[in-house]
Structure formats: C-alpha cells, structure tokens
Prior knowledge:
This protein is 20% helix and 27% strand. With 270 residues, it is of the alpha+beta class. The protein has two domains: 9-111, Alpha-Beta Plaits (2-Layer Sandwich), CATH 3.30.70; 115-245, Alpha-Beta Plaits, CATH 3.30.70. Strands 1, 2, 3, 4, 5, 6, 7, 8, 9 and 10 form a ten-stranded mixed β-sheet that branches. Helix 1 (34-46) crosses helix 2 (80-90), helix 3 (143-150) crosses helix 4 (201-213) and helix 3 (143-150) packs parallel to helix 5.
Amino acid sequence: MLTTNTTCHRYFVELAFNGTSFHGWQIQPGATTVQETLNLAIGTLIGQPVNLVGCGRTDAGVHASHFVAHFDTDTPISDCNLLTYRLNRFLINSIRIDRIVKVELDLHARFQAFSRTYQYFISLQRSPFLQEYSWILTIPLDIDAMNTACQSLIGKHDFTSFSKLHTDVKTNNCEVFEAGWTQISGYLVFNIRADRFLRNMVRAIVGTLVEVGKGKKNQDQVQKILLAMDRSKAGMSVPAKGLFLTKVEYPSEKFISNPNPPFPQGLGNY
Length: 270
C-alpha cells in the first residue's frame, strides 16, 4: 500500500466510534483511548508509526458517528480504499473507518474545521436498549421554553459558564450557528452546531436547558448565566453517554481526491 517517495503526505481518516469502552479520544496514561487504538492499527498495517491528530477531544463515554483525524506519512498510500477495508477487519467492533482520503498538507483536522455538530439524546421512557446511548429522563419538559432559551446561545460569545474549569485553551469564545430541540419517537434530541466547542460545553448547556424545561430557569436567566462567565451559575453536566459528535466540516477544495465518501455511511458497510 505504500510507494517510495520522500515527500510528506497527509491523510484524513473519517470514522465512527462507540465511546462506552474508551476514555475519550486523546491518549492518556493507563487508559484505553480511540487515538491510541488507531495509532497502533494504522501503524501496523502501513508498516510505519503514525500519530493521529483528532478534530477535537471527546470525554470518556462520548460517542461519535462522524469523527475526523489526520496522519502524515513519508510515503504515499497507493490504495486508501484497501487500507480502509483492512482496518475495519483489524479493528474492534466499537470503531468503524468510513474512509481515508489524501488532503493538502496544510489541512489540519483540528484547526481547519469550520464547524462541528453535536447531538444529545434524552429518552423519555425507560428502556434496557436505550440506556447506553441516551440519558433517560421521564419527567415532563417544556420543549418550547427550551427552544426559546436556545436563542440566547446563538452567535459569538464567551462560553466560560459552560466550560470545564482549568482547561488549556487560549480563548473560551465560540460562535454557535444553530441550537435547538426536536422530539422524535420517544426521544428529545438537542442539536448544536458551532465553529468550536469547549470541554464539557454541550453537556453543561443541556443540563441548563433541562432546568428551563422543568420550569426552574427561563431565557433571561440563561442569558445572565452566559454573561456571568461563571461555571457555578450553569446547570449540571449531563451524562456523557447521550452525547454524539455527528458532523465535522472542512473546506472541500483541500481534499486531493473526491471529498464525497466512496461508501454509503452506516453500519455494516464492510
């Protein structure tokens, strides 16, 4: 799969993973992570060590139906589809590789993403089949009030009130493009799209909006929480198991090959 060439080559890997058995994306001492698992698998199959750079961190237990990472090689990969196939045979079932594509060297999986979308799932009924992938909450919630409060989040703001404390980012400013709730067949689904997210941000926002749904807070209070830049003012951080990273977007002109995936997205492709 590798051909001789001294020029550096960059590849994007698009994947999905069930985060239940992982301590998040980023390598940590003494913990099983998605990054470490993929570094080992790809390095083994192409015959040289790699260090994948992810589009962002995910906390332990958080899932992704669309996650993107990049790695560099000294020699080009001759058949990305074959490597994709072999990785899916090699990896454990909780990770699926959707495609590997060559990109321009200046396209960075973390810093060049112009938007990311997360979804959070709340199950409105108890079920043994949903508890691993949603937060079960059977009390009535006012969805209209929750959606009204979402309007305070739209735009560019300092989201310190919804961030984990003592993180190593340079700024807590994020631009939220859309945020809202829908009810689908026994689920409440929160959808939020932004240019970037802080650690714990979506889970803290959901916890705050659920308090609005319970009648304990209103839109004006959510606005004040945002302006306070104080994590203690916001709601609880809801369980990680209901959170999914669902889409990461990049400038398509940076993809050397077709930016559209060669295989249909979904389970069972391989």
